[in-house]
């Protein structure tokens, strides 16, 4: 008996999935598509190898060539973020967060965080990484009208909580964090300032959001596969210089928390692809980041003009790659319904909590992201057409299968990846691999 049919079944599903996303409008804000040069690293021999430690100091033999890869990756990361410390080993954004939580606080110690309904990542909460590390949390107040932290309220929280670290950064992230003021208060109390840049890493690197390492963050974590469109993985960055015993200890603690703390071997093929993604972003990131922000603004405006309740109106809807739409009233919890109708219409996004929601599983919002559409060549003009598809599906309640046909036809003109060194994504993804 052979299981070849099962193996081919999985290959067939992967092909179908490629076609599904190729024909749809993928608008999950945390997702992106991988450049051919990065993808090549994922199927290289690095995939099957082990390395533990740091370049030149390995537990395993056979790492000499990979040492050069990691050394170059770290050098490119430091250049991209204009900083003095980079660790590119974390296998995901959450793993990077876990390492920093482990390095900076012991179980039972107190930290300040944003609530999930205000857009904090799941790892910032008791049910996620913060809870796994056993940390005690006090939440910052959030201002829905400004879609940002309530600055005075947050200062008060920091002063009263006296946290080991103050954690900033969101997964629903429309506007830059007022970091300078809050970092000042944190530092006065001896708390470290931690900024989770998972979503906005590529915007920061492209100079189009905020610059946390210059605004007071001691350490910044990020995902390498969202607005910074590399392989799935994490990175930890800091501009703290090892110029005192305390700072040296701080940086060493971060490295030590990554390995042996939360990784053993750490996906060498992903590290190689991260290095290429950093090089591509150094080359194209400024233009790509600028276009993502312009596209998100254009999409928000297009939706607003079509009578959607787009949050953040007072400040121009968004300064990032995201748009948040509330469907109906908070109590109606229509986010799930809307996300399903959109999927039926060929638009893939996710339901999301808005600040007053109490249930993550029955929220009233949608979070929309433009990183992938931008990477596939769409600009402001196309965002108007995209907004019109939303209107047809959710306001006109047109038959979703009809909308889906039109989405598919529309998408055929956007099959060449931009902002990367080799742009034959179509050939690579659809023909060469299958
Ligand atoms: N949960 C992901 C997001 O979509 O924001 C990040 O890990």
Short description:
This protein has helices spanning 4-23, 36-42, 64-81, 93-104, 129-132, 151-161, 179-188, 201-205, 245-262, 268-305, 335-344, 371-375, 380-395, 400-411, 425-432; strands at 25-26, 53-54, 57-58, 85-87, 110-113, 136-139, 142-143, 148-149, 165-168, 192-196, 219-225, 229-238, 309-310, 322-326, 347-348, 350-352, 365-369. With 434 residues, the protein is of the alpha/beta class. The strands form five sheets. A seven-stranded mixed β-sheet has the order 4-12-11-10-9-5-6, with helices on both faces.
Break the fold down into its secondary structure elements and pairings:
Elements: H1 4-23, E1 25-26, H2 36-42, E2 53-54, E3 57-58, H3 64-81, E4 85-87, H4 93-104, E5 110-113, H5 129-132, E6 136-139, E7 142-143, E8 148-149, H6 151-161, E9 165-168, H7 179-188, E10 192-196, H8 201-205, E11 219-225, E12 229-238, H9 245-262, H10 268-305, E13 309-310, E14 322-326, H11 335-344, E15 347-348, E16 350-352, E17 365-369, H12 371-375, H13 380-395, H14 400-411, H15 425-432
Parallel strand pairs: 1-15, 5-6, 5-9, 9-10, 10-11
Antiparallel strand pairs: 2-3, 4-12, 7-8, 11-12, 13-14, 14-17, 16-17
Helix pairs in contact: 2-10, 3-10, 4-9, 6-7, 10-13
The chain binds D-serine.
Residues 30, 93, 121, 171, 198 line the site of D-serine.
